[in-house]
Amino acid sequence: MSRQKLTKIRTDLLARLVELGYRVTPQRELLLSALGQADKHLSAETLLERVRAVYPRVNKSVVYRNLELLAQLGLISCMDFGQGHVEYEVHHHPHHHHLVCRNCRAMLEIDGDAFADIQRQLLERYGFAAEMDHLALFGLCRKCREKMPVQISHHPHSL
Questions:
Q1: What is the 3-state secondary structure (H, E, C) of the chain?
Q2: Whole-model pTM above 0.90?
Q3: Residue 46 and residue 86 in contact, taking contact as beta carbons nearer than 8 Å
Q4: Counting CB atoms within 10 angstroms of each CB, which of 57, 64, 137, 142 has the fewest?
Q5: Strands 136-139 and 96-101: what pairing?
Q6: Whole-number Å distance between alpha carbons of 136 and 16
């Protein structure tokens, strides 16, 4: 990503934070900068390391509280990819989703409209307005499925 685009993302996120009535603290600015520069999802621990590289005395709880706040405000997204921790990224528009291989951990990012039919059906059939802005679906990728002689699911509820 170009430096100009990174600067715009950072500026837009900070402006949105102020617009929502929150102060731009050094911790929030560093978190949003680290997330804006990332080319993948980052764990809270990784973000803490990146913030501490610039602001060594930052408290771990401050980083976690700010990540929670930024997620609640819709500035960042958090996902559980089944690895025992949550990972974060800047909230993208349009929305996107992830297909995660349970075997090799490969992750494929797909367009947000991939589940538009499901979202529509949930609304029509059940009156449920699903907020499908960032999903992770688990299964087996093509490569892993091709390597397996028999279809085996790692899901405990599968037959």
A1: CCHHHHHHHHHHHHHHHHHCCCCCCHHHHHHHHHHHHCCCCEEHHHHHHHHHHHCCCCCHHHHHHHHHHHHHCCCEEEEECCCCCEEEEECCCCCEEEEEECCCCCEEEEEHHHHHHHHHHHHHHHCCCCCCCCCEEEECCHHHHHHCCCCCCCCCCCC
A2: no
A3: no
A4: 57
A5: parallel
A6: 26
Integer Cα distance of 78 and 50 in angstroms? 17
Distance CA 150, CA 159 (A): 13
Confidence of residue 159 (pLDDT cuts 50, 70, 90): very low
Residue 148 dihedral angles phi and psi, to the nearest 5°: -90, 130
User: 42-43 and 86-90 as β-strands: parallel, antiparallel, unpaired?
Assistant: antiparallel
